[in-house]
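During the no-cost extension, the postdoctoral fellow (Dr. R.K.) reprocessed legacy sequence entries with the updated structure-token encoder. One reprocessed record is reproduced below for audit purposes.
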Amino acid sequence: MAAFAILKLVLVISLFHFSSAARNLAETSDQNQMQFQYHNGPLLTGKLSVNLIWYGRFTPSQRAIVSDFLTSLSKPTSDQPSVATWWKSIEKYYHLSKKPTSSLALSLGTQVLDENYSLGKSLTSRQIQQLASKGAQNYGINVVLTSSDVLVDGFCMNSCGTHGSSNGGSQIRGSKTNKFAYIWVGNSETQCPGQCAWPFHQPIYGPQSPPLVTPNNDVGLDGMVINLASLLAGTVTNPFGNGYFQSPKDAPLEASSACPGVYGQGSYPGYAGDLLVDPTTGASYNAHGSNGKKYLLPALYDPSTSTCSTLV
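Re-encoded structure tokens follow.
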């Protein structure tokens, strides 16, 4: 019962970092009885561009935080641990699938700025798909990023972001139909930082430990990177709902969301783990990126050991 209570508390604190959008505590309370497994569906393979649709107002420095993170996925740095090292662990999923798949390589693709809120400041899930399908047509994964003044159905109430697939737009290899993969992540700086930007903001539930200092001096964007990283891991390993995940299928735990609230060794409810700290700024991080950037990235579930793997 003690272990169950701890697990339940972790899930409450980290509910909004799940890759799947509509989980609630009742659905996940017995997750320890479910098995993380491969469901024999396609994984994303080949060279994929990650295309960004910036919806609303973002400063150039904010856009650089995300674009440098994506560039870092395939660009190892001399400083370790790195974003590229974190992403390389995804290869284990491909090796264990026992399918003749090619390797996966992500790169930063097209960036589209929609600063005039073409669909208004209150968006439905259907409109998110519309933006994803029309905003960037390059072959790859289309990512919609909404600014802090944009309301999205379910945002803060049960999700910080989602990933999925839809017909039309850019086709993804491995799909028998004309489907494309997309991701949406919202900026929670003013709407719900305690839900979507933890541990850079005090959580609304659980232990009230002081928030960590952000590595890029932006609570909203550093929180977006955490959620984007989690969703990218879920997208490539479970793009169409029949890849790697832990049941139930309609609200799965995926490569990153299976390790809620874990960022470093020794993590526990309300504590992100033992992290690296910048001696000058006091910022907490666990990965080095391009252009001197530092990031905090979520742990990834290691399917070969059935444990949550961290960089530090």
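DSSP finds eight helices and 15 strands in the chain. Confidence is low (pLDDT under 50) at residues 1-33, 169-177. The remaining legacy entries will be reprocessed before the final report is submitted.
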